[in-house]
Automatic annotation (TrEMBL):
Protein name, UniProt field: Betaine aldehyde dehydrogenase
Keyword Iron assigned: no
Pathway(s) this gene product operates in, as recorded in its UniProt entry: Amine and polyamine biosynthesis; betaine biosynthesis via choline pathway; betaine from betaine aldehyde: step 1/1
Similarity comment: Belongs to the aldehyde dehydrogenase family.
Catalytic activity: 4-(trimethylamino)butanal + NAD(+) + H2O = 4-(trimethylamino)butanoate + NADH + 2 H(+); 4-guanidinobutanal + NAD(+) + H2O = 4-guanidinobutanoate + NADH + 2 H(+)
Domain Aldehyde dehydrogenase, chain residue ranges per copy: 19-489
GO molecular function list: 4-trimethylammoniobutyraldehyde dehydrogenase activity; gamma-guanidinobutyraldehyde dehydrogenase (NAD+) activity
Organism of provenance: Zoysia tenuifolia
Keywords: NAD, Oxidoreductase
Active site: 263
Gene3D superfamilies reported for this sequence: Aldehyde Dehydrogenase, Chain A, domain 1, Aldehyde Dehydrogenase, Chain A, domain 2
PANTHER family per the UniProt record, alphabetical: BETAINE ALDEHYDE DEHYDROGENASE (PTHR43860), BETAINE ALDEHYDE DEHYDROGENASE 1 (PTHR43860:SF7)
Length: 507
């Protein structure tokens, strides 16, 4: 049974611990992409609101000399992070429903995302607590008159700009470590899916997060994101989204020598060798790698490379499995492929598919609207073969349930094809041979390697890419370092004068 849609809460911008109407009074419609109906609206922030949000974050960072937040012990901040996690769990089904209505993702996936959101806040609460005991570790020096240690401090006010594919989860990957580190933040979610991020604001009020520690401004990229990225009082920008926008964010930040971390697009390969025992197990990972979340995943393994000896059998099984994916309203029980996020994204896929066809590729399966769904931005899972390396479908990120499959005959050819991309986020190898797996782990140019699987993600492990997929690592301890700066502290501990100006010098 499908859950009954609820009313979408009407929220303002979350600034300084309360709701505020946007300065220009404008709002953006929220469209449910599975029904194409408008279900609510969100405030459209502009530079004036960014100003207020950054000022609130700055004030929260400095309030009482930082005693209650930025300089407080990690244990103090952990308490708030745990309280947020508890509220997420309590409101899980409402939040998951909102996420599905906003983004078109299957409700089962939205529920799993909310579990991951709560787990991420808890994980960074643990790290914040453990952090207290790890500060001021002595650094060994070659002169005994000096003692040195490193002090990790929060970087300051951070601007967090996030995408629509996992709206609350991608925001959490930044908010949780930033707050754990003692930063204060301004979050700018994607205009295409902001509802659950605004609900995070409501949760902050409920748990009594100090005002201004987290501010949430919804709005368009150029109007709300750009002034945040270029703001002189924002000390760091963390961004997830497209490579094109990433470049703009980096250019804006460069004017103030502001550090950025960028988690951008991908065109990740999954290489399937002919030594595997069970082709269906490989097919299932391949499917999960490109059809989960409708392929709207930065790390989706959207290029499958399969050994020529098993290519026919693999493709037959892939098509057979793809035919059985349940495509439906994402609220329907058992849905495994919902709608894509927006009309713009839907039109973009259709163009990609027609260009692939015009360039000579074969649409082996899918490529069209499922016949039983007349409304909503739905597209069949799409499998494309006869692909050459100059084709758009091989080179560019589609960010949808569209995969291209290419054969290889030798390991070195597979590596060459895998690395034939400007991107470098992830890569997968499916083989029974540990030596092949080891060699490919080293040879694939990417920040994440999956062996005999695709897409599993654990909050404890580093996440991020190389090449044009960006730089910096989220999650794990690396995620916390993203929001810290390291201060060297060196003390002279002798009663003797330094002696430099009293020749003959002792030095
Ligand atoms: N790596 C990833 O996880 C993601 C990749 N993408 C890729 O990007 C394509 C387009 O999706 P979009 O929603 O247009 O992504 P986008 O990169 O434009 O949006 C991401 C975020 O950046 C903000 N933004 C846009 N312009 C900005 C600017 N000038 N300054 C600061 N912030 C700005 C947006 O409002 C949003 O919050 C997708 O089809 C996909 O290929 C999209 C979302 C996530
Ligand atoms: C690991 N997963 C699939 C939950 C999130 C991937 C991150 C992204 O698409 O930006």
């Amino acid at each position: 049974m499908a859950a009954a849609p609820r009313d979408v809460p009407r929220r303002g911008l979350f600034i300084g611990g309360g709701w505020r109407e946007p300065s220009l009074g404008r709002r953006l419609p929220v469209v449910n992409p599975a029904t194409e109906t408008t279900i609510g609206d969100v405030p459209a922030a502009t530079a004036e609101d960014v100003e207020l949000a950054v000022a609130a974050a700055r004030e929260a960072f400095r309030r009482d000399g930082g005693r209650h937040w930025s300089c407080a012990s990690g244990a103090v901040r952990a308490k708030f992070l745990r309280a947020i996690a508890a509220k997420i769990k309590e409101k899980k089904s409402d939040l998951a429903l909102l996420e599905t209505l906003d983004s078109g993702k299957p409700l089962d996936e939205a529920n799993a995302d909310m579990d991951d959101v709560a787990a991420c806040f808890e994980y960074y609460a643990d790290l914040a607590e453990a952090f207290d005991g790890k500060q001021r570790l002595p650094i060994s020096l070659p002169m005994e008159n000096f003692k040195s240690y490193a002090l990790k401090e929060p970087i300051g006010v951070v601007g967090l700009i996030t995408p629509w594919n996992y709206p609350l989860l991608m925001a959490t990957w930044k908010v949780a470590p930033a707050l754990a580190a003692g930063c204060t933040a301004v979050l700018k979610p994607s205009e295409l899916a902001s509802l659950t991020c605004l609900e995070l604001g409501a949760i902050c009020i409920e748990i009594g997060l100090p005002p201004g520690v987290l501010n949430i401004i919804t709005g368009l990229g150029p109007e709300a994101g750009a002034p945040l990225a270029s703001h002189p009082h924002v000390d760091k920008v963390a961004f997830t989204g497209s490579t094109e926008t990433g470049k703009r964010v980096m250019t804006a930040a460069a004017q103030m020598v502001k550090p950025v971390s960028l988690e951008l697009g991908g065109k990740s390969p999954l290489i399937v060798f002919d030594d595997i025992d069970n082709i269906d197990n490989a097919v299932e990972w391949a499917m999960f790698g490109i059809f989960a979340n409708g392929g709207q995943v930065c790390s989706a393994t959207s290029r499958i490379l399969v050994h020529e000896k098993i290519a026919k059998q693999f493709l037959d099984r892939l098509v057979a499995w793809a035919k059985h994916i349940k495509i439906s309203d994402p609220l329907e029980e058992g849905c495994r492929l919902g709608s894509v996020v927006s009309e713009g994204q839907y039109e973009k896929i259709k163009k990609f598919i027609s260009t692939a066809r015009n360039e000579g590729a074969t649409i082996l399966y899918g490529g069209a609207r499922p016949q039983h769904l007349r409304r909503g931005f739905f597209i069949e899972p799409t499998i494309i073969t006869d692909v050459s390396t100059s084709m758009q479908i091989w080179r560019e990120e589609v960010f949808d349930p569209v995969v291209c499959v290419k054969e290889f005959s030798t390991e070195s050819e597979a590596v060459e094809l895998a690395n034939d991309t400007h991107y470098g986020l992830a890569g997968g190898v499916i083989s029974n041979d540990p030596e092949i797996c080891e060699r490919l782990t080293k040879a694939i140019q990417a920040g994440i390697i999956w062996i005999n699987c695709s897409q599993p993600c654990f909050v404890q492990a580093p996440w991020g890419g190389n090449k044009r997929s960006g730089f910096g690592r989220e999650l794990g301890e690396w995620g916390l370092d993203n929001y810290m700066t390291v201060k060297q502290v060196t003390k002279y501990c002798s009663d003797e004068p330094w002696g430099w100006y009293q020749p003959p010098s002792k030095l």
